[in-house]
């Protein structure tokens, strides 16, 4: 079984393309737009081969986690790592343009928290989930119910 470190920034599928005397792995635009990676930065990359269903020589892999939401369709594109109604502990890292707190969770996915201040670690309820951002409300801030 492959052990995945907590420091994993992003996980996606891509094909390796040939470009002259080099090979290219394209990063999906969504990974940049939600802050998992930034152009011009250097990253460590790990590659896992795709298992062919009919191949007996492929390395064994862990079965993908089945999504418990029957409304979600597997499109091959990573889904947001949060669900509406989910309760989460987050840490506010910065402030957005409108003064709301910005927290990041798995894969750099952004959660907007109204009235959050950098360094706050509130418990929030995810209210609205979009492709690259979620909006949450504080349900408990440092032991005080809001």
UniProtKB/TrEMBL annotation:
Domain (TRAM): residue spans on this chain:
81-140
Organism in which the protein naturally occurs: Haloarcula vallismortis ATCC 29715
Q: What is this protein called?
A: TRAM domain-containing protein
Q: What's the superkingdom here?
A: Archaea
The record's InterPro entries line, in alphabetical order, gives:
NA-bd_OB-fold, TRAM_dom
Q: Which Gene3D superfamilies match?
A: Nucleic acid-binding proteins
Locate the region Disordered: 51-84
> Residue spans with biased composition (Polar residues)?
52-65
Its organism's taxonomic lineage begins at: Archaea, Methanobacteriati, Methanobacteriota, Stenosarchaea group, Halobacteria
- One Pfam match, given by its short name, reads TRAM
């Amino acid at each position: 079984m492959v052990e995945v470190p907590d420091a994993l920034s992003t996980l996606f599928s891509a094909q390796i393309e040939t470009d002259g005397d080099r090979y290219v792995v394209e990063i999906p635009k969504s990974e940049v737009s939600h802050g998992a990676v930034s152009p011009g930065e250097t990253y460590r990359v790990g590659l896992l081969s795709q298992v062919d269903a009919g191949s007996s020589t492929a390395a064994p892999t862990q079965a993908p986690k089945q999504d418990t939401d029957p409304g979600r369709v597997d499109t091959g594109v990573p889904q947001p790592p949060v669900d509406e109604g989910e309760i989460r502990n987050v840490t506010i890292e910065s402030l957005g343009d409108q003064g709301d707190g910005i927290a990041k969770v798995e894969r750099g996915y952004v959660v907007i928290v109204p009235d959050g201040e950098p360094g706050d670690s509130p418990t929030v309820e995810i209210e609205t989930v979009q492709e690259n951002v979620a909006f949450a409300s504080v349900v408990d801030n440092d032991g005080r119910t809001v």
